[in-house]
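can u do me a favor
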């Protein structure tokens, strides 16, 4: 049995967020959780063991910098990927590439 990979998606657009989480959850061993604001992202990150954080479009630079610092501080092994859209195939390959490139 494969280990479940928990993926946190942070996005500012509800429709895109819903779509990305649905696409993540279409993969058997992936569990996607989506949030729209930074505080919620930090709270859920502390409660669940995430392997990967996806940053969606629309996140301001300052917010992105703060989130990355927070996630890295909590879990130095966290993988953070910027995802600006481009369809389900791109999303899946971005996630797979990130996971593959960060195996220790």
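np, heres the sequence
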């Amino acid at each position: 049995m494969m280990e479940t990979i928990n993926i946190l998606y942070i996005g500012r657009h509800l429709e895109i967020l819903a779509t990305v989480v649905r696409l993540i959850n279409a993969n058997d061993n992936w569990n996607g959780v989506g949030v729209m604001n930074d505080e919620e992202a930090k709270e859920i990150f502390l409660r669940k063991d995430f392997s990967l954080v996806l940053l969606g479009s629309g996140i301001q630079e300052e917010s992105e910098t703060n989130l990355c610092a927070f996630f890295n501080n909590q879990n130095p092994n966290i993988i953070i990927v910027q995802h600006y859209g481009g369809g389900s195939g791109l999303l899946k390959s971005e996630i797979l590439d990130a996971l593959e490139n960060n195996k220790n």
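The chain has a mean pLDDT of 93. hope that helps!!
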